[in-house]
Amino acid sequence: MKVLILNGSPRAKGTTAALLHMIENELVSNEFEVDFFDLGNIRMSHCKGCSSCYRTGRCIIDDDAEKISQMIGEADGIVIGSPTYASNVSGVMKDFIDRGHFVIEQLLHDKYCITVATGENYGSRDALKVMDNLVLFSGGKLCCHLRVRTPLNEELQSVKRISGRMINAMQRKKMFPVQKLIHAFIFNFGIRPFVKRKGTAYSGVAEKWERLGIL
Fold this sequence. Notes:
The protein is of the alpha/beta class. It has 8 helices and 5 strands, in the order E-H-E-H-H-E-H-E-H-E-H-H-H. Helix 1 packs across helix 6 (about 155-170). The longest helix is centred in the last third of the chain and has 22 residues, at about 175-200.
C-alpha cells in the first residue's frame, strides 16, 4: 500500500518535518511504500481563482502541486502536517489546499488519512481543525490526528500510536461509519446540489465523480 506524506512547513528540518519523518519510519518499517514531500521546496504557484479546473478536471498551472495532486489520487493513504501560524495552517499548506482539487473534486475519496499540527499555543487546535475538516469534506477517512506542543519532548509513543491506527485501518479496510454518514450529508445536501446548479461549468468535476464511483 502507498502513502503520501505532505509536510506543510516551509522548514524541511523543523518540528513538523521531524514528526512526519517519524511517521514515515513507522510506515516503512511495516512495508508501506511512502513518498514524502516538503511543500516548501516544491514548485507551486498561487491559485488564480479561475475555476477552470472544475470544467476541465485539471489545473491550468503545470507545476509540482498538480503532479502531487495526481499522486494523491493514486495513493491509498495521506498524512498531512502543518505548523500553526496565526491560529491556522501555514501559508504553503494553504496554497496547496487551494491548488489541490480537494473538497469539490473529492480528491481524498476513500483515502485513509492522518493530520498533524504543531504549535506553541492554543491556536494549533484551529490549525488541526482546518486539516480535519479538509479530510472529512474531501471524502477521506480520518484515522486519527495529532496535536503537538513545541518544543518536542517524548513524542515517539504518540507517533507509534497514530501510525499504528492508520496501518491497522488500512489493513482491515476500516469503514468509519460515523464519518461516512457526516460526509454523505455534506456531499448530498451541500456539494452535489451546488455542482449540479453550475452545469457545464463544472463538467470536469462530474466526470471525476463518475470515475470515483460516487455519483
